[in-house]
Write a structure and sequence with these properties.
By secondary structure, this protein is α+β, with helices and mostly antiparallel strands. It is 48% helix and 24% strand. Strands 1, 2, 9, 10 and 11 form a 5-stranded antiparallel β-sheet that branches. It is elongated. This is Acriflavin resistance protein.
């Protein structure tokens, strides 16, 4: 699956949760196979929660790989060292710099490697010639087992432990309520083995923490403002008259939230705080 989001949204989400998605669930443990199993269980569970979209595993296993396993007995029989064989394989497919050429003031590396057709042909890997100490050549398949398998292109770590991450976006509801439902569903339906645990690192978590800090700071600021206003208005009765008018300033914003069907986001909260200050100033 794929998701589409603006550049700014993606950067903000990555800053808040380490992922470009709105919700990121880290499954942390030591056994990668166990993490993959639990990640797939969480993916299936998230699909059943209302509002979940673009649910995926960030680094899924099953990436095709070509494995080359050297046979020590055959290496010894042909007089080859494993380091020399591995270097030949690296040179053939990855390339090795053997010199430089100069064109005016620019320098260009000269690399040696197989041609593209041979490098992309899996069947030709076993025919890579290896130079022995006796002066003759033997194919790679004579000293190694070559087979296709599945591997991983990425192994993530968090706090010195291996982790697998499930990401998701949320539509039609707030990310915070989605995270709460996901927490409840995971605790109820998924039994994690010993040494494995789940950690939520989502934009909703950061937004919830920011909202709490905003309410605390706003409360402290409101107390200070009330004290200053009582001094300016020379009495609590005049201050009470000003405060009576404040609820009418919020009517438009509250109706807009109800009509649009959205939730009270951090941005909307900041807007209400700003409106509160403007109303007091105009009063």
């Amino acid at each position: 699956s794929f998701s589409v989001s603006s550049f700014l949204t993606m950067r903000v989400n990555e800053t808040l949760s380490g992922s470009s998605s709105a919700v990121a669930i880290n499954i942390i443990g030591d056994d990668l196979d166990v993490l993959d199993i639990q990640a797939n269980n969480i993916v299936r569970m998230l699909h059943q929660i209302h509002g979940a979209t673009d649910v995926r595993i960030e680094a899924p296993p099953g990436v095709p790989e070509l494995a080359i396993r050297l046979r020590p007995a055959d290496l010894e029989r042909w007089g080859l060292r494993s380091a020399d064989v591995l270097r030949s394989i690296h040179t053939a497919w990855q390339g090795e710099t053997v010199g430089q050429i100069y064109e005016r003031s620019a320098a260009f590396n000269v690399m040696v490697r197989l041609d593209d057709a041979s490098r992309n042909d899996v069947a030709s890997v076993g025919f890579l010639p290896l130079h022995t100490v006796h002066g003759n050549y033997v194919p790679l398949r004579a000293v190694a087992d070559i087979y296709e398998t599945n591997g991983r292109y990425q192994v993530s770590h968090l706090g010195a432990q291996r982790t697998q991450t499930v990401t998701a976006n949320v539509t039609g509801r707030s990310a915070q309520s989605f995270v709460q439902d996901a927490r409840t569903a995971i605790a109820k339906n998924i039994k994690l083995p010993l040494g494995t645990y789940v950690q939520f690192t989502s934009a909703a978590e950061a937004e919830s923490q920011s909202r709490k800090e905003l309410f605390i700071n706003s409360g402290l600021a409101a107390i200070a403002v009330m004290i200053l206003l009582s001094i300016i208005t020379q009495g609590w009765r005049n201050l009470a008259l000003i405060l009576v008018n404040l609820p009418f300033a919020f009517v438009g914003g509250i109706l807009a939230i109800i009509v649009s069907g959205t939730t009270l986001t951090l941005g909307a909260t900041v807007g209400f705080v700003t409106l509160f200050g403007i109303t007091l100033r105009n009063s």
